[in-house]
Write a structure and sequence with these properties.
With 139 residues, this protein is mostly beta strands. The protein has two helices and ten strands, in the order βββαβββββαββ. Strands 3-2-1-4-10 form a five-stranded antiparallel β-sheet. The longest helix has 7 residues. The radius of gyration is 15 Å and the shape is elongated. The protein starts with 6 loop residues before the first strand and ends with a strand.
């Protein structure tokens, strides 16, 4: 299946916590980072997601925020450390590619944010993604 979603991160489900309507699925990415997806309990059942399942975590580039330092006091659970490897600037927006322990993650952010944060190749960052913005594909 071909998707327009830029970020497709392979991993293994480490745990599933099911609720009445929503479940949280913790995924250990191939690079060793942990990512949490909040998806419907029906989706967990329909896809047969259990601990040990091989999945791809799917995240639209527009749902990835970047920080250049430690982040405290936020409800966002997914905080993945990495290093900027490339910045493609446009008139208003930019595409920032981040190496996250051997994997790639793309963030679509404003040109102003790139300039204010001083983002360029080699700059360490933390990628932030709300768990509700992570979808899962079973492999």
């Amino acid at each position: 299946m071909s998707l327009s979603i830029r970020n497709q991160l392979p991993g293994t489900v480490s745990s599933v916590t099911s609720g009445e309507a929503m479940s949280t699925v913790k995924v250990r990415l191939e690079g060793g980072q942990d990512l949490t997806a909040a998806i419907t309990t029906d989706a967990v059942k329909d896809l047969g997601i259990v601990a040990g399942s091989s999945v791809k975590a799917l995240v639209k580039a527009t749902e990835v925020a970047l920080a250049t330092g430690p982040v405290e006091g936020l409800s966002i659970r997914n905080r993945i450390a990495g290093t900027v490897v490339g910045v493609a600037m446009g008139g208003a927006m930019a595409s920032v590619t981040v190496d996250v322990n051997g994997g790639g993650l793309t963030a679509a952010i404003t040109k102003d944010a790139v300039e204010t944060l001083g983002l360029a190749a080699g700059i360490p960052v933390v990628a932030l993604v709300k768990s509700t913005e992570v979808s899962l594909q079973v492999l």
